[in-house]
Amino acid sequence: MGRVTNRDEALPVAARTGTRLVHVFSEFMREGETLRRHRVAEGTWRREYNTQDWLSCPVLECMLSRNSRTALGDARSLPFIRDLVEFGTSKARPTDIIVLTNDDTFFCSGLTYLILNRVPWCGAAFAFRWDFKRLARLDRPEIREGRKNMGADLFAFTGKWWLDHGNEYPDMLLGCETWDWIMRELIRLRGGVELFECIFHEKHSAFWAMHRLENVGNRHNRALACAWLHEHSLPCSIGSYSILNTE
User: Fold this and answer.
1) pLDDT bracket for residue 134 (50, 70, 90)
2) What's CA 137's distance to the chain center, in Å?
3) How much is the pTM?
4) Is residue 48 within 8 Å of residue 114, measured between CB atoms?
5) Cα dihedral across residues 90, 91, 96, 98: positive or negative
6) What span, in angstroms and rounded, lies between the C-alpha atoms of 123 and 25?
């Protein structure tokens, strides 16, 4: 194979034909340590933004017509996943890719290339996160020095994929139990793929885990997840973790 003489020729076709990445994330309830983690993660976002055409789409509470407090009486105010995605799609062009993440998800260098190289062809992708005790620098760590977490913190899909399959995703909340599990399984069932070793995260205590049984948002998500997994003949457990364990 001959040497690539034009730098753009090394990019995926999607990058050379004007595909934009629309990055959707929640700006609900951000203060203290939550704000610090976001700001450090945001530095890794900007690095990737500079490699290709990205559109940053933060979603504030005032931009949505409902949240977990108004809809379910939750003590917290959290967005529904469907509302976040629909907000992103309203800002996207037909050729764009929606990228949904948590607001403290760190991007590894080269993530843009991975998304553009896979998502246009298969429709959707997800990535598990790798956890570290504390992150302060913006350069890429050796990701395998962390611990791979069962949680997926990045989802990317074309507008067409969401139009075709988004109605299959139950009306779940961000920041509560199992929402990422069900999104991941839907992507697998509908032709999507996993992106490997491309996002990382600073490990911290999670409200959903500390208040798993009593929190109304957790109960909402757990009930929807159980019904969805049963409908698709999938197990309600991963390793030692089970949605059915309510003790």
Assistant:
1) confident
2) 22
3) 0.88
4) no
5) negative
6) 20
Q: Whose CA is closest to 199, among 105, 97, 135?
A: 105
Nearest residue to 113 (alpha-carbon basis) of 197, 46, 52, 187: 52
Token digits for 26?
């929640």
Please give the structure tokens belonging to residue 223: 């009930």
Give the tens place of pLDDT for each residue, 25-63.
998 766 667 788 888 889 899 999 999 899 999 999 999
Q: Which residues, including other chains, have CB under 8 Å from residue 57's CB and lie 6 or more apart?
A: 22, 23, 24, 25, 87, 88, 91
- Residue in the block written with tokens 């760590």: 141
Say how far apart CA 133 and CA 147 lie, in whole Å. 10
- Which pair of tokens denotes residue 207? 């409200």
| E strands, the chain, in order | 21-26, 54-59, 97-101, 106-107, 124-132, 147-158, 193-194, 199-202, 237-238, 241-242
List the one residue out of 115, 119, 122 whose CA is nearest residue 191: 122
Cα–Cα distances in Å, from 203 out to 56, 109, 129, 189, 206? 24, 20, 10, 29, 9
CA torsion angle 106 211 66 186 (round to 10): 60
| Separation between Cα atoms, residue 202 and residue 12, nearest integer Å | 30
CATH number of 7-206: 3.90.550
Q: How far apart are alpha carbons 65 and 59 in whole angstroms?
A: 12
Question: Which residues in 6-33 are b (16+ Cβ under 10 Å) and which e?
Answer: eeeeebbebbeeebbbbbbbbebbbeee
Rounded to an integer, what distance in angstroms lies between the CA atom of residue 162 and that of residue 223? 23
